[in-house]
Amino acid sequence: MSARPIRVLVAKPGLDGHDRGAKVIAQALRDAGMEVIYTGLRQTPEQIVEAALQEDVQVVALSSLSGAHLHLFPLVVEGLRRQNAADVLVLGGGVIPDEDIPVLREAGVVEIFGPGTLTKDVISFIRERVPA
Q1: Which helix (H) or strand (E) holds 75?
Q2: What are the structural domain ranges in the chain?
Q3: Candidate CATH numbers 3.40.50.280, 3.30.450.20, 3.50.50.60, 3.40.50.150; the one for domain 7-129
Q4: Which of 31, 47, 57, 102 could cysteine-pair with 7, CB 3.0–4.6 Å?
Q5: Which pLDDT does position 16 carry in this prediction?
Q6: Is the dihedral of CA 32, 37, 42, 47 positive or negative?
Q7: Backbone dihedral angles phi then psi of residue 107, each to the nearest 5 degrees
Q8: Comparing 17 with 84, which gets the higher pLDDT?
Q9: Neighbours of 87 (CB within 10 A)
């Protein structure tokens, strides 16, 4: 009997219309054997939480290039908590200033991956933190 693959929801919250990085991450996670659901562009935090619950994911990977990460990422974390899904690992990525990272971590975003992060580092991070 094989272990269930790690399930990851890759999401683009807000009005950000740039999804190349999200698609690269989604493909790398798939290539690493994870099941990946990509929400597409311009999702609300509520839509992301609902998709995470419906898809029974262990990880939500948020991508933002719009500058709205301080508002949107915490809303996803809080929405998951309200739905008794605080065990879902929330990660962030995109163009996020260094000074915003502690604020996001305080809000419950476990890690932030910026431009230039190697996909193998994201894969390793998830595998180390999600039980098999």
Answers
A1: helix 69-82
A2: 7-129
A3: 3.40.50.280
A4: 57
A5: 83
A6: negative
A7: -80, -10
A8: 84
A9: 10
